[in-house]
Request: fold
Amino acid sequence: MLPINELPAPIGPNHRRDFKDKVVAEIGCGGGWYLAEMLYQGATKAIGFEASRTVIERATQALQKLKLTAYEFREVDGRYLDVLPEKSVDILLEITVFQHISEDATKGYFRTSRRVLKNSGLFLCQFLMNDKNPLKDPYNPKEGTVYYAHKEVMELAEDHGLRVSKYGDWKWTDGKGSYWRLYVMTPNEARASAKA
Ligand SMILES: C[S@@+](CC[C@H](N)C(=O)[O-])C[C@H]1O[C@@H](n2cnc3c(N)ncnc32)[C@H](O)[C@@H]1O
Reply:
C-alpha cells in the first residue's frame, strides 16, 4: 500500500485539504488504511466497500484500535454503490482493485458512481495500464490481472457521465509497457443537464 501522501500528482502535495469535511467512500478498502488516513485528514465519514467479510472484520478491529468512529463498511453485492443515497459522496477512491476484478464489475462501480457522487464530487481511481496489450483475464491464475488502455478508461468515464480532469503516473513499469495511472474524474455536468 502506498501512503496517501505518496500518491501521484492528481492528489498532489496539497491533497490534505481535499479530505477535510468530506464524505469519502473507498472501493475495495482492504484493511481500511486509506479510510483511516482520510479520517485523520479531516473526512467526516468514511465508507469502505469490500468483497471479503473476513477483511471487513479485520478492518473494523483495526479502526477500532485507532479509536476512529466515523466509518462504516459495506460488503459488496450486485448493487455496487447504489446502496448509498443519491449525491451523498464527495470523494470516491479506488486503489489497486480494478486490476483484480472483471471488467463487468468495474463497469458496475462506474455505472453507480455518478448517482452517488455530489456534483462537486471526485472519483480518484487507479488502473493498471497497458496501451498495447490491455489484457482482461482476472480469473487466469498465470495472468490474473486486468490491464486497461488509456482510451478505454476515457471511454469508461465518458460512458458513465464522468469527465477525466487529470491523471498522473507512478514511476514504475514492468518493461512490457505496463504502468500505474491514477485518474481524477468529475461528474460531467453537460451530460447530466442534457439528460435532465
Ligand atoms: C489489493 S487489495 C487493495 C486494498 C486497498 N485498496 C489498498 O490499496 O491497500 C484489493 C481489495 O479489493 C477487495 N475486492 C476484491 N473484489 C472486490 C470487489 N468486487 N469489490 C470491492 N472490493 C473487492 C479485496 O478483497 C481486497 O481487499
